[in-house]
Specification:
This protein is α/β, with parallel strands linked by helices. The protein has 13 helices and 18 strands.
Length: 406
């Protein structure tokens, strides 16, 4: 997308505004598929927690994608978006047995990540095809909050607990059809990924009726010009060769599954915000925008970097600005960032806003959530309306008159 297109959308739909480029989502999906074209059975399940708008789900559904879900509500959204139950993969963490059983009744693939629930579910439903999430004890990811495969992680069944796991499966006569892992996000070193894959291969040898191996995702995308990213093509060559060899050893052609979220939608997203005030202090020039971490929490939560461009004056002289929001506490998007000269009323564009931006948005400070627009075939399509005061009041129940008068 070009800056002029984004500026037009900000004028048309107002700000703040999320914009998603359909062509970029499609190209990322095709890139991953091509990288693993040597694998006969490849399945891509979009990790919808990254961006769960129904229009985005439908776009990926039409490309052949399945879904990776982590809650019963995400499963329901997937079904609403037209996914067949067998194309939906459910990997919860710390949920009740009741929720898992309710999702199972919907016909989706269950993935269990702890021994307690595994034993209980297996005792009740020994014939249900189940996947098991293994914790490989591999530290990977760009931030401690998104590294989920290490020894202190709450996710998955420890690879060191395999004997206990196998005993549960044998006692309950469960039907284990898949093994799953996910080490973390923003993985750069593909050798770490390949090392974890070997752990998954070894674990898989304990189960004789597997249909697939799920390697999760966590591929890093570039956040700025010339930034490093996961070499998907190199990973495709090495892991495809090893996976095919394992299938030969196993004596059965298995399906290789990935669960990309950020990889598919992050670079497709733009977050547009208008500058309310330019504030000069004794040491800093602040550009205060009409948004805050209620709409884009990742810089405050993960310390993530989003490239910021002044699309109102892209060719101006560069100055140093700290870009901040309107939330009534520390609310910083960028410190001393070089941006072309900013004036009040200018529109700033934040890149890489497709993943974990709207999906983590809130009504903190009783602010509205912005609209979402899908840029497709050279046109902006509104896929979520801007919230109103009625949305803030929805589901709130005022006190009865008798109580108010006390």
């Amino acid at each position: 997308m070009q800056s002029k297109d984004l500026l037009h959308l900000a004028e048309q739909f107002g700000s703040p505004l999320y914009v998603y480029d359909a062509e970029k989502i499609q190209s990322q999906y095709n890139r991953l598929s091509k990288a693993f074209s040597k694998v006969n059975k490849l399945r891509i399940n979009y990790a919808m927690k990254a961006l769960s708008n129904v229009a985005i789900l439908q776009l990926l559904r039409d490309m052949g994608s399945g879904l990776d879900t982590v809650s019963i509500q995400e499963v329901m959204l997937g079904l609403h978006a037209g996914y067949e139950p067998e194309k939906i993969f459910y990997t919860p963490n710390g949920v009740s047995l009741e929720e898992i059983e309710e999702v199972n009744a919907m016909g989706v693939q269950i993935n269990i990540d702890n021994l307690s629930i595994l034993e209980q579910f297996g005792a009740r439903h020994p014939d249900v095809p189940v996947c098991i999430r293994i914790n490989p004890h591999v530290m990977a990811g760009g931030n401690a909050n998104i590294s989920v495969g290490h020894i202190d992680s709450k996710f998955g069944i420890s690879v060191h607990q395999l004997p206990h796991l196998v005993r549960i499966v044998e006692n309950t006569k469960m039907n284990i059809v898949g093994i799953h892992m996910h080490t973390g996000s923003d993985i750069l070193d593909i050798e770490v990924f390949l090392y974890a894959a070997e752990i998954l291969f070894d674990a898989a040898k304990n189960f004789k009726n597997l249909e697939f191996l799920d390697f999760g995702s966590g591929f890093k995308v570039p956040y700025k010009k010339d930034d490093i990213e996961t070499d998907i093509e190199e990973l495709g060559k090495k892991l495809s060769k090893r996976f095919n060899a394992f299938c030969t050893e196993y004596g059965k052609e298995l399906t290789l599954i990935f669960e990309p979220g950020k990889f598919l939608v992050s670079e497709a997203g733009y977050f547009l915000a208008k500058v309310n005030v330019v504030k000069q202090t004794t040491s800093t020039v602040f550009a205060g925008i009409d948004s805050g971490f209620n709409h884009l929490i990742r810089p405050m939560f993960y310390g993530s970097q989003h490239h910021i461009e002044n699309i109102s004056h892209p060719k101006g002289k560069e100055r140093f600005y700290s870009v901040v929001g309107y939330i009534c506490e520390t609310d910083t998007f960028a410190n001393n960032r070089r941006i072309t000269e900013i004036k009040e009323g200018d529109v700033l564009s934040f890149r890489n806003a497709g993943a974990y931006c709207f999906s983590m948005a809130s009504n903190y400070n009783s602010r509205y959530k912005p609209a979402e627009v899908l840029w497709m075939n050279g046109e902006g399509h509104l896929i979520r309306a801007h919230e109103s005061f009625e949305d803030i009041l929805r589901n709130q129940i005022p006190l009865p008159q008798a109580v108010e008068s006390v």
